[in-house]
Amino acid sequence: MKKITLRTCIVTKEKLEKKDLIRIVKNKEGKISIDLKGKANGRGVYLKRDLGVIDKAPKYLPRVLESEIDPKLYEDLKELIK
Questions:
Q1: Quick check: 58 pLDDT over 90?
Q2: Against a cut of 0.85, is the pTM above it?
Q3: How many domains does the chain have?
Q4: What is the DSSP string of 21-67?
């Protein structure tokens, strides 16, 4: 039996399978992007695939990634979920 890897959503603090989450990554150059494959190098955080969570993300993401977040990232996340 294969072990299921759980990750924690930074907004809801729920432990979920990776398939139920979206990974946001900040690379060494400081660029923040959506990591669709889950394998990009850098500091990664997870958000639950839920529009309510994405609406709350602007409160959490800048603090966790210690960077300003482009508002377009949130729009891209919403489009990804729809």
A1: yes
A2: yes
A3: 1
A4: EEEEEE-TT--EEEESSS--SSEEEEEES-HHHHHHHHHHHHHHHTS
Phi-psi region of 30 (alpha: psi -120 to 50; beta: other; left: phi over 0): left
Residues in the chain: 82
Name the residue range of residue 13's domain.
6-81
Helix (H) or strand (E) holding 78: helix 71-81
What does the pLDDT read at residue 82? 85
The CATH number of residue 51's host domain is 3.30.1230.10
Say if 1 falls within a structural domain: no
38 has a pLDDT exceeding 90: no
